[in-house]
Amino acid sequence: MKPRYAPYFFLAPFFALFGVFMVYPLFDSIRLSTYSVRGMQNQTFVGLENIERLIADPLFWTALWNTAYFAAGSLLLQLPVALALALLLSNARLKGRNLFRLSFFSPVLISGVFIAVIFYLLYDRRYGLVNRVLGSEIQWLQDPDLVMPALVLAGVWRWAGFNMVYFLAGLQSIRQELYEAAAVDGAGPWQSFVHVTIPALKPVIAFVVITSMIGSFQLFDLPYVLTEGGPGNASMTMVMYLYKHGFEFINLGYAATIGWALAVIIGVISIIQVRLFGVFREN
Amino acid sequence: MRNPVRTTITYVLLILLTVLVLTPLFWVVSASFKPSGEIFSYPPTFLPQDPTLENFTRLFQEMPIVQYIVNSTFLATSHTLLLLAIATMGGFAFAKYSFRGRGVLFAIVLASMMIPFHLVLVPLFTLLYQFGWLDTYQGVILPYLASSGFGVFLMRQFILGVPTDLIDQARIDGSSEFGIYWRVIIPAVKPAMGALSIFGFLGAWNEFLWPMIVLRDAAKYTLPLGLASLVGVYRQEYGMLMAGTLLSILPIMALFLAMQREFVQGITLGAVKE
């Protein structure tokens, strides 16, 4: 093999898989979304009918609302918790630092299915630990007003430790002189947090916000196992709705349309956030 | 942190938070050793009053749990090995060769990291149907590897740091291009491969939705699939579910403990370097 062909040879496996299992399906998904597909052999062209149906489908909007609720919850609750954990751990002289970090990170290692099983027991009205500690008998997963907050809290438990690692790495890359200069100028801890830490962390915050949003919009396993989208459809998410149409009702055309709606929403949100943070502008 | 009050507050908060995070895990361990009557006793007990191995023995007797463990291990291991090969080769090409189309191809790799896998669930399913790959392991593994863009990017970042002199020297000594990859690059990026293999293994070990769509035959189920299928049936058998949960968490915990440093280094590379 000549050196000039070598890089193409080395790249072939990735691009072959990417072409067959990502690029082709992406185009096929456009085609599918203009068809009514009932089972594998029964396809009829319907044009934009799936999109019209989607816009008029109240359940789709419910799923979108629930998913957005979860994403907003992650943004407002989980990320501040993650940052707080990182700040607490940022001192290198802290004793037992590795042990704390490992504990906070450990939920990330567990499959969503098992997290759902664990929280099913924790949230139980009578035998659950949550109600035991609160001294209450709240039906967390059976009350349509409480089920999404309960999922957000489970999400905080699951992902805060993961984002903490990013914040921690960001904090460690801030030069100590910046804090010393701020202290010389008479800045207290709060002021140096606002004027030194936050601006220096901006690229990491941008990264974490964008990846968390993309992840949150694809929420599936937790509600699928924990609540099956219920009660009613109070915890139905977009990917669950896609799954239901695609693989339970075998309504592939409509499911592909939901997939595109999801992609468009994720794309728009990512672009807005990239603009907001000005991520790619500096370099 | 010379201020003793601040130090004390930090430790108190850290310990409280650790308790909060670890309690659900403690609950799993505790429940898997409780006899079935005790899990649903009121008020709930923190420690098993009457510890038993009954949940584990029943798990092994009544469920094909060994089969699930074997399947999960096989699937996650093959996924990881393939991911390592694809990512190190791709990363090597981008880091150490200049060739026509490099910029465009690299941009495609970066863009591929942003495409949500769920967008193509449906067309992938119809594609696998046409291939006759439904209910097969290659049907689970290969489409998932189309999302190896992150791995390629990660390995490129690490391979950039390998001295080009080593490569030139190997070439002068008459080594083939593949020989350079195998004898120079691979040994130099072993720690980074450690990080990537945890990613790959963790992802494949824990993945739920995609294997659920592809696999039909219960004998091919992975641990998350197998246990999820029992949730409805065994709602009252929580001890068994908890024991199963514990069994599936342990291997991944052990792997992570062994490679903690490389992993943290790996996941933060993309976010902080730029």
What would you note in describing this structure?
The complex is a heterodimer of chains A (283) and B (274). Chain A is an all-alpha fold. Chain A has a single domain, classed as MetI-like (MetI-like fold). Chain A has twelve helices and two strands, in the order αββααααααααααα. Chain A has a two-stranded antiparallel sheet. In chain A, helix 8 packs across helix 9 (189-216) and helix 11 packs antiparallel against helix 12 (252-277). By secondary structure, chain B is mainly α. Chain B folds into two domains: 1-53, no CATH class; 63-272, MetI-like (MetI-like fold). In chain B, 75% of the residues lie in helices and 0% in strands. Chain B has 15 helices and no strands. In chain B, helix 1 crosses helix 14 (238-258), helix 3 crosses helix 14 (238-258) and helix 4 crosses helix 8 (149-159). The radius of gyration of chain B is 23 Å and the shape is globular. Classes of the chains: A mainly alpha (283), B mainly alpha (274). The interface between A and B is large, with 89 and 94 residues.
Give a summary of the structure in a few sentences.
Chain A has 283 residues and is mainly α.
Which keywords apply here?
A: 283 residues; MetI-like fold; 12 helices; 70% helix; B: 274 residues
User: SSE order of chain A in H/E notation?
Assistant: HEEHHHHHHHHHHH
Number of domains of chain A: 1
Placed side by side, the strands forming the largest sheet of chain A appear as: 1-2
Computed CA radius of gyration of chain B, to the nearest angstrom: 23 Å
Largest interface: A-B, 89 and 94 residues
What number of domains of chain B? 2
- Inertia-based shape of chain B: globular
Q: Could you tell me the strand content of chain A as a percent range? A: under 5%
Q: Which superfamily, in CATH terms, is the homologous superfamily of chain A?
A: MetI-like
Please provide the count of β strands of chain A: 2
Helix-strand sequence of chain B: HHHHHHHHHHHHHHH
Radius of gyration of chain A: 23 Å
Distance between the termini of chain A: 37 Å
What percentage of amino acids of chain B are in beta strands?
A: under 5%
The computed structural class of chain B is: mainly alpha
